[in-house]
Amino acid sequence: MDILTLTGIAAGLAMDAFAVALSAGVMLNPLTFRQLFRLGFHFGLFQGLMPIIGWLAGISLRKFVTVFAPWIAFILLCFTGGKMIHEALTGNDKPVKRTDPTRGMTMVMLSVATSIDALAVGFSLSLLGVSIWTPAITIGIITAALTVIGMLLGSRIGTLWGDRIEILGGFVLIAIGLKILLGSV
After folding, report:
1. From CA 104, how far away is CA 102, in angstroms rounded?
2. Does residue 101 sit in helix, strand or coil?
3. Which end of the chain has fewer CB within 10 Å, C or N?
């Protein structure tokens, strides 16, 4: 597989992570290096591991996973997006401790939800007889980089537009979930 094709696949897979990172950056003000590292590392790690898992599973699990993967991503993204919208709307009336999307189960849910499509890429690569190691590493690195860029942009936007952008970010996550779900039908 040539480097241009691989880079295109990696960038395409990283777009969900970028959009989620943009939303996370909006929520986190001020943004710390630790938060940037955590989300970038985890999104990159999950995005790099999912093609390996898909590649190893190969044809045997393809039918099962491809049926449920869009639903899993949809549920996780809708839950997280709904939570963001709720926190933004209730934050103006009373103090609410906002969830840090770079910690705990929220980070794990987002990492899984944004990397489910990479599982299908792993399946495809196994059918094509392509070695998985270079694509997995490339996908992970590009995703980590775009996650950090997204968080930095989101933080800057969030400073300018506050809770309105956080609400928009929640709707973006829900829209990504719907796109994944409807794209599978």
Report:
1. 7
2. coil
3. C
The two tokens of residue 126 are: 């196994």
The secondary element (H helix, E strand) that includes residue 145 is: helix 133-161
Tell me how far apart the alpha carbons of residues 159 and 138 are, in angstroms, rounded to a whole number.
32
Give the number of domains in the chain: 1
Q: Which domain holds residue 127?
A: 3-25+32-95+108-183
Q: 173 lies in a domain?
A: yes
pTM of the predicted model as reported, rounded to 2 decimal places: 0.72
> Which DSSP category does 104 fall into?
H
Query: For 114-161, what is each residue's pLDDT tens digit?
Result: 888 788 788 777 766 778 999 999 999 999 999 999 999 988 886 676
